[in-house]
């Protein structure tokens, strides 16, 4: 089994309801066991301005699936929740649901289709705060522990909304 971490985010529709439903969908993935879910967090959007705040969380999943297979299953869940990916390469857009594979064990890969660890996760409080809640000692390959990296994001606005599992 490989321990994987998946970030969830949404800022369109009813994001709290969406994240709770997405976590339920993640519990049903084949060959996967959801072993932990963070609290929900409200965060300011990164990148483009004039968007609603995001609701974010992170889950831990134990799986026998290879990373590309797991990522494809995450894409299917996003589609079920109405996610439409930008075809022009735009990033950081408002969305109904975003699922990002952050870590897949200690695997590193720079494949354009799936980069591990997830790019820029080490700079983002909206990833690091919920990840620190469920796995503070986890080391991000090529960087430092989650708790150490979170300390360097003190200037990013983040608010825990719901304590305990989302």
Can you walk me through this structure?
- It is a single chain.
- By secondary structure, the chain is an alpha+beta fold.
- It has a single domain (2-162), classed as 7,8-Dihydro-6-hydroxymethylpterin-pyrophosphokinase HPPK (Alpha-Beta Plaits, 2-Layer Sandwich), CATH 3.30.70.560.
- The protein has helices at 15-27, 67-80, 125-134, 146-151; strands at residues 2-10, 32-37, 40-43, 54-63, 98-104, 109-111, 114-116, 158-162.
- A hairpin with a 2-residue loop joins strand 6 (109-111) and strand 7.
- The protein is globular.
- It starts with a strand and ends with a strand.
How does the SSE layout of this entry go?
Blueprint: E1 2-10, H1 15-27, E2 32-37, E3 40-43, E4 54-63, H2 67-80, E5 98-104, E6 109-111, E7 114-116, H3 125-134, H4 146-151, E8 158-162
Antiparallel strand pairs: 1-4, 1-5, 2-4, 3-4, 3-8, 6-7
The number of domains: 1
User: What global shape is seen?
Assistant: globular
Compressed to H and E, one letter per element, the order equals EHEEEHEEEHHE
CATH superfamily: 7,8-Dihydro-6-hydroxymethylpterin-pyrophosphokinase HPPK
Arithmetic mean of pLDDT: 89
Q: Determine and state the CATH class.
A: Alpha Beta
Largest sheet: 6 strands, antiparallel
Straight-line distance between termini? 24 Å
Percentage beta strand: 25-35%
């Amino acid at each position: 089994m490989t321990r994987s971490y998946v970030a969830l985010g949404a800022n369109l529709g009813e994001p709290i309801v969406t994240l709770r439903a997405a976590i339920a969908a993640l519990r049903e993935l084949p060959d996967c066991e959801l072993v932990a879910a963070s609290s929900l967090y409200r965060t300011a959007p990164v990148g483009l301005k004039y968007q609603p705040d995001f609701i974010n969380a992170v889950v831990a999943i134990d799986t026998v699936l290879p990373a590309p297979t797991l990522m494809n299953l995450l894409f299917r869940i996003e589609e079920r929740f109405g996610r439409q990916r930008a075809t022009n390469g735009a990033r950081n857009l408002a969305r109904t649901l975003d699922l990002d594979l952050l870590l897949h064990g200690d695997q590193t890969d720079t494949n354009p289709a799936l980069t591990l660890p997830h790019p820029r996760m080490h700079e983002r409080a909206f990833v690091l705060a919920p990840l620190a809640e469920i796995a503070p000692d986890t080391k991000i390959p090529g960087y430092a522990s989650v708790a150490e990296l979170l300390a360097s994001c003190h200037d990013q606005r983040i608010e825990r909304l719901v304590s305990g599992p989302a």
